[in-house]
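Quick one:
INPUT:
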């Protein structure tokens, strides 16, 4: 099987790192709480807390947030993208460029 795609990432390495149901529930709750409060600072703190508690890689967490974001309306999708790209990546530097690519 091809382990390196056109952008040079080994995508097969992600197959063995699927989060547990508990971690997925925490990610879903994270998104629901952000949708209700629309508070970027609280979302950042929750993001860091969940990563620390569960030992999930930041890039995996970002990827699952994106996965859920695709099910939202255009407005909801843009809000979640603003959280990921504008706030967690560009403003607060919680997510590195590599985390964003891998996510």
């Amino acid at each position: 099987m091809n382990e390196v795609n056109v952008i040079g990432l080994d995508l097969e390495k992600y197959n063995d790192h699927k989060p547990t149901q508990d971690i997925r529930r925490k990610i879903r709750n994270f998104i629901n709480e952000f949708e209700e409060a629309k508070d970027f600072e609280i979302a950042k703190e929750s993001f860091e807390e969940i990563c620390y508690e569960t030992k999930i890689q930041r890039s995996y967490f970002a990827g699952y947030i994106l996965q859920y974001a695709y099910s939202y309306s255009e407005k909801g999708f843009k809000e979640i993208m603003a959280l990921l790209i504008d706030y967690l990546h560009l403003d607060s530097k919680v997510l590195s460029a590599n985390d964003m690519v891998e996510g």
